[in-house]
Amino acid sequence: MSEGALAGYGVLVTRPVAQSGELVDAIEDAGGQAIRFPVMDIDGAAAADVAKAFADLPQPDIIVFVSRNAVIYGLAAINTVDALIAVIGPATKAAVEKNGAQVDIVPEQGSDSEQLLAHPNLQDVEGKTITIVRGEHGREKLAETLRSRGASISYLPVYQRQLHSASAGELAALDKSWHDGEVDCVTVMSVETLHNLLQLIPSACRELLVETPLVAPSARVIQTAEESIPGISTVLAPGPQTADIISALIELRQSGQSK
């Protein structure tokens, strides 16, 4: 990363507070201004409750972690189980490995259900028992496809995603920053994050959002943004990891597409 490559560049960071630090630090290390506006809160289940819920499930042949939060709140419960570990993408893989476990199945590219389902080890799963570790709710694509291939699927919900309760002060600060021209780009990591952002921001900011480039690591997020905000400029980052987002931000800045 080039030092100062984002000098004078304001980036709206919408990740939950506890998970935004790495991206914020990287933006600031590159000379940019990170404007925090979390749109989602993560409420993790108690470890004892997760362990009990997992013990009540059938013994799995494969355990799938669909996010870093799934790893943070669910990995400890399955550490003693002899099962293959699958992950949704490189950021989730890094989280598993950081906690001392080995990943057996990871998409060859990308970081979504479709890419994971394309992995050779998930084609012939007839008679296999698969546990999907995730939040309280989520996409059904992964489970539906694996069931169609003959697998038995169980869910282990280990956290809840909540719409952030933005204070009047947070909303006023965002409105001021945007109208003062400090928000040059918005980062959004998931479709749910995008929906929450649209629900939370003041109407005047939503008008400015149309004129503000949006960076996201998933084609699904890009497609949803373009459908929900006609006319918005979007940039697909090469992946969800911090280095991927920073790379996309620098490329956007250098391209002159910024607001």
Describe the structure.
It is a single chain. The protein is α/β, with parallel strands linked by helices and 259 residues long. The protein folds into 2 domains: 10-39 and 164-255, Rossmann fold (3-Layer(aba) Sandwich), CATH 3.40.50; 43-161, 3-Layer(aba) Sandwich (Rossmann fold), CATH 3.40.50.10090. 40% of the residues lie in helices and 19% in strands. It is built from 11 helices and 10 strands. The protein has helices at residues 21-29, 47-55, 68-78, 90-98, 113-117, 141-148, 168-179, 191-200, 203-209, 219-228, 242-255; strands at residues 10-13, 33-36, 40-44, 62-65, 84-87, 129-135, 152-163, 185-187, 214-216, 234-236. A 5-stranded parallel sheet has the order 2-1-8-9-10, with helices on both faces. Helix 10 (219-228) links the parallel strand 9 and strand 10 (234-236). The longest helix is centred in the last third of the chain and has 14 residues, at 242-255. The two termini are 22 Å apart.
